[in-house]
Design brief:
Layout: H1 22-42, H2 48-70, H3 73-92, H4 97-107, H5 115-118, H6 122-138
Helix pairs in contact: 1-2, 4-6
């Protein structure tokens, strides 16, 4: 598993290897912490638009931070490697892109919580964009 077959539709992961490391997880945690701190500060801002934006964004960022700190970096990497392997497996099974995305959304419902890490790799960015686009199109 984890190897892409030649000649298949590889648009979600392409030929990119799984190359995420502990440093990538730590970087994402730090980035998310800074966002949470910024949104918390925004709650006290005099600018009503910024305050309103902070009120809406803070719960999602806090949820992401919780997800990123609930598991150890090693456990997160193991989970993300499982995600990568699943996308490769489904791609190699010649499933349509839409079905791959639907299965990933079902099997990895907390995908968005880890996107700060995933987007550091080209395959993770592409996968995230495809999942978020499908989510918008389907309205869910």
């Amino acid at each position: 598993m984890g190897e892409l077959s030649e000649g298949k539709d590889q648009s979600l992961v392409g030929s990119d290897p799984f190359a995420l490391a502990e440093n990538d997880v730590l970087k994402a945690i730090e980035e998310t912490r800074k966002s949470v701190d910024g949104f918390r500060a925004g709650l006290e801002d005099e600018n009503e638009k910024f305050k309103s934006f902070s009120q809406k964004a803070l719960p999602k960022k806090e949820q992401e931070l919780q997800a990123l700190t609930r598991l150890s970096p090693e456990e997160i990497l193991e989970k993300l490697k499982g995600l990568y392997d699943k996308v490769v497996e489904l791609t190699n099974a010649n499933l349509p892109r839409e079905e791959i995305i639907a299965r990933i959304r079902t099997e990895f419902p907390d995908f968005a919580d880890y996107y700060t890490i995933l987007r550091q790799e080209p395959w993770g960015y592409r996968l995230g964009q495809a999942i978020f686009a499908e989510k918008v199109e389907s309205g869910s």
